[in-house]
Design brief:
single chain, 99 residues, mainly alpha, 0% strand, flat, disordered C terminus
Length: 99
């Protein structure tokens, strides 16, 4: 990881693959359309990240990987907390406010 852009790409990739399929399945989108949506979102996010100037700065491998691992752990904790709240809630409906 030579740039902050690469760290941001890894983090956004994990976020997209963790949360997006769950919400797309809840609104009833088919498997192939979910894959297409994930591909399009990842492509758009990577394009946007490449245009952000502050992410073009150099970062050492150690700091980049530590940042990535720390954010990955936080994302997984949030994912399991949200999943447990939805499981105890009993309703698996997604609010229309998200869409």
């Amino acid at each position: 990881m030579k740039k902050w852009e690469n760290v941001a790409r890894g983090i956004s990739f994990v976020i997209i693959l963790t949360f997006l399929p769950y919400f797309l399945e809840n609104i009833g989108i088919s498997f192939w359309l979910i894959g297409l949506c994930i591909f399009a979102v990842i492509y758009c996010v990577f394009f946007i990240l490449s245009k952000i100037e502050c992410l073009q700065k150099s970062v050492s491998n150690k700091v980049g990987w530590l940042t990535y691992i720390m954010v990955f752990i936080i994302i997984m904790v949030l994912y399991y907390k949200i999943g447990s709240v939805l499981a105890h809630d009993g309703s698996m409906r997604v609010s229309a406010a998200f869409f």
